[in-house]
Design brief:
Blueprint (H helix, E strand, L loop, with lengths): L8 E5 L8 E5 L1 H77 L29 H30 L10 E4 L2 E4 L6 E4 L2 E4 L5 E3 L4 E9 L3 E9 L2 E11 L6 E2 L4 E5 L9 E8 L2 E3 L10
Antiparallel strand pairs: 1-2, 3-6, 4-5, 6-13, 7-12, 8-9, 8-11, 9-10, 10-12, 10-13, 13-14
Length: 294
C-alpha cells in the first residue's frame, strides 16, 4: 500500500537578474502558524494603536485640567481678595453705624446681630465652599441698610424735635422777674408769676426760639398784644406786652424769625417782654429750656 503524499506549499523567489532561483517549501502546519501569528500580530497592533490614541486623549485631557486648575486657582485668589475687601468694608461700615446708632439714642439697634462671618477662600485644586457666600454678603448689606434707615429715622425725628424745642432766648435783655411766687408789682399782693420778664428797649425785636405755627396774634386782657406759637411735641410759647405784631395767625415760623417788638401794652410798669413756656398744657420755667446766655 503506497504511503500518503504529504502536502506542502512552495514559495518560489525569482530574481530579475539571472540569479539563482530560490524555492521554499512550507508545511501546512507552518502555514497555519504563520497565519495565526499574522492574526495575533494584527490584533496586538490594533490594540496598541487604540491604547495609544486613548493615552493621547487622556494626556490632552490632563493638560486641559491642569490649565483649568491654574485658572481656578488665580480666580479663587482674586475672589478671596475681593471677599476680604468687601467684608472689611462691611465691618468698618457696621462699626460706624453702631457709633451713629449710639449717638442717635438707639444703642440696642445691633443687639442680636450676627458676629463677624469673614472667611477665606480655598487656594486652588478642589473647590472649597466660602464661609461667606455672596448671598450672605448681600443679606448683611441689606441688614445694614435697614439699620441705617432706622438710625436715619431716629436722627430725623430728633432733629425735628430739637428744631421745635424752644431752646433760645426770645430777646436779649435783663431778667427782671423770674418764674414762680412773687409780689405783684401793681397790686403788691402775693402771686405766681407764670414766665420770665425780660427787660429790653422799646421796639427790640422778639424772635421765636423754635419752629412752629402762630396760633394767636391779638390783644388779651393783662397781656396786651400777645403772640402764641404752637411748636408741636407739646410745646407752646407766649410773648406778651408787644408793641406790635410781625406775624399773623396760621403763619408758620422758623427758629430765629421775628414775631414782634418789645412794647408797653397790657398790664405792665415798663417796656419788657413777658415770656412763657408751656409743655403738654402745663406751665414750665422758661429758664429750664433756654440754652443761650442773655
Amino acid at each position: 500500500m503506497p504511503l500518503p503524499t504529504r502536502r506542502h506549499s512552495t514559495i518560489i523567489v525569482i530574481p530579475h537578474n539571472r540569479g539563482k532561483v530560490y524555492k521554499l517549501q512550507i508545511s501546512p502546519v507552518a502555514v497555519k502558524v504563520a497565519i495565526a501569528v499574522a492574526i495575533v500580530t494584527g490584533i496586538l497592533t490594533a490594540i496598541s494603536l487604540f491604547a495609544s490614541g486613548t493615552f493621547l486623549q487622556q494626556r490632552a485631557a490632563y493638560s486641559s485640567l491642569q490649565r483649568e486648575n491654574r485658572l481656578l486657582k488665580r480666580s479663587n485668589q482674586r475672589l478671596s481678595e475681593s471677599v476680604n475687601q468687601i467684608q472689611s468694608r462691611l465691618a468698618q461700615f457696621e462699626q460706624r453705624t453702631k457709633t451713629l446708632a449710639i449717638a442717635a439714642g438707639v444703642p440696642t439697634l445691633f443687639a442680636g446681630s450676627s458676629e463677624d462671618t469673614r472667611g477665606a477662600v480655598g487656594g486652588g485644586g478642589p473647590l472649597h465652599r466660602l464661609s461667606a457666600e455672596p448671598q450672605d454678603l448681600l443679606d448683611r448689606q441689606q441688614q445694614l441698610d435697614r439699620q441705617l434707615e432706622r438710625v436715619e429715622q431716629k436722627l430725623t425725628h430728633e432733629a425735628i424735635m430739637i428744631s421745635h424745642t424752644p431752646v433760645l432766648a426770645p430777646v436779649v435783655g435783663v431778667i427782671t422777674e423770674g418764674y414762680g411766687p412773687r409780689f405783684d408789682p401793681i397790686s403788691h399782693q402775693p402771686a405766681f408769676h407764670d414766665g420770665l420778664d425780660i427787660s429790653a428797649a422799646l421796639g427790640t425785636e422778639v424772635r421765636v426760639p423754635a419752629d412752629g405755627v402762630v396760633i394767636f396774634a391779638d390783644r388779651e386782657t393783662g397781656y396786651g398784644k400777645l403772640v402764641k406759637v404752637n411748636h408741636g411735641y407739646g410745646f407752646t410759647t407766649l410773648y406778651a406786652h408787644l408793641e406790635r405784631f410781625l406775624v399773623k395767625e396760621g403763619q408758620k415760623v422758623t427758629r430765629g424769625q421775628v414775631v414782634g417788638r418789645v412794647g408797653l401794652t397790657g398790664r405792665t410798669t415798663g417796656a419788657h417782654l413777658h415770656y412763657e413756656v408751656w409743655k403738654d398744657g402745663e406751665k414750665q420755667n422758661p429758664l429750664n429750656f433756654i440754652l443761650d446766655a442773655f
